[in-house]
Design a protein that fits this description.
39% of the residues lie in helices and 16% in strands. It is elongated, with a radius of gyration of 36 Å. Strands 6-5-7-8-18-17-14-11-12 form a nine-stranded mixed β-sheet, with helices on both faces. A four-stranded mixed β-sheet has the order 2-1-3-4, covered by helices on one side. It is α/β, with parallel strands linked by helices. The protein contains 15 helices and 18 strands.
Amino acid sequence: MSEATSERRSNLVVNLGRIAGAIGLVFWLSAPLTWQLSGEFGPLVWGKLMVGGLCVGAYLFTNADFWSRIAGSRSTGLLFMTAVSAAIVLALVGVANYIAVKNDKEFDLTAEGLYTLSEQTRDVLSRLDGEVKVMAFFHPMEPEYVAAKETLERYAGAGNKLTYEMIPPQNRPDLVKLYQITNYGPRIVITTGKQDARAKDFSEQELTNAVIKVTEQKALTVAFLVGHGELSTDDEQAAEGLKGIATAIEAEGYKVETLSLQKGAQPGGDKVKLNVDPHGHAEPAPALEVPRHVAVLVVAGPRGKLLPAEMQALEAFLKRGGRLVLLAEAGAETGIEKLARQWKIELNNDIVVDTNMINRLSGLGPAEPLIFPSEEGEHPATREMVAPAVFGTASTLNVVAGGEAGVDARPLLVTGESAWGETALKDGTAERDAKDHLGPAPVAAVAVKQIPSTELERSADEARLVVFGDADWVSNRYYQMQGNTDLFLNTLNWLAEQEGKITIRPKSRAASSLFLTGEQFGVLKFVSMDILPVLLVAAGLGIVLIRRRG
């Protein structure tokens, strides 16, 4: 074997020893980090210390002149200063980490603002009068645990009267039995001590609605009139059904029911009064009445005419301070247009057409216009409207003079400037001309009237009416488009004098999630925060040692 070959092998052994020494040193220094990440002084920590010891031993064995070189090297002082500098840097990093832990801040960089509580949630939490506790029954190793805890931390941070507790089900069988917690049912309980509610998941919408339910004493009733071919709140399959918006109304904290004035007028039992006196003269039929518990009545796109007695019931409902929503369909003559006219709102016999290119880019047709708040004064129902609504086959309307004395009516929503109300649709073709109602044209209006204290049947000091020139916009097909849901719920909240609820509902998550099990998350955290940094530092240190020898 030549002297050159022997020297090359000697250099290789020395260099490998130096790399091993670098790895061993980094393993020793990173052992506390592994201890913190694993949560125990277990096999991982012991393994690192032992492997580090073997690597350092290999370095000392292959570099026998280590101590003599250190003692006699002119760079000993430089190495000492480097070690001191490294110690200072590590200390500063530790201090920075301590400050960060004690002053926890979150920055939401998602486009939808998924990790920022909505205005509605912050309002609800700020108005809490008493203590509210949230109990989430999840084991730390379950995939949902981390996300649920992070969400509840945001809630607790936004309201000082809300606290939460993560409860492993096996640790509290008494609470599991009390609240009937199962693997397939709601596992988040919100309680005030007197009453409680369940959240099906830890989404913001579910949690906020559950908080509203336990903190509000009684749910107000929103009734939908039936019996004339109206859109159905029970139909979740058909595009023209109202099941979707009805569910959203319930999620807002209201009770939803249907109301048939005709059936309500029928007496029960086997006896039927014929309304004929002993002389054969017909007696007046009993007046129909909207039940007193109804906070808001919605008439959604009737196809048939309402009976005169039903129209009188609606008029009486408004006269005593009731709150009414009329969702009219283009060209339909059902009687509600006459009631609207009495309240200074006149529905036009036309169809809104909008040629705006934005409609086409959004996948909407010319008969599906974008709708915006009226500029004739700010209104509570549209104050928080940040996205336009989408109507379908809508009619324009006008605020007119005459009608009921004391009524104050004003436009609520209008079309864009590119839209118009087509009055002479021929063969499915629309053409703007002087006879049409040019945009921006009103498609919704509100009317209010003060109810005098002398009114014996008064239920509120002000009657409120909202008329929309379209019913489809809250159907299953349209209610999730743009700002439709927020607009309708905010309108109901204004009618029911629940202005505190008027805001923007929580955002929906886009399809950008990475789902990990608890074990996978632990491995990812360990590799990214321990293994990779250790290997990089060890490689860098080894290269430095080899170059220094050279």
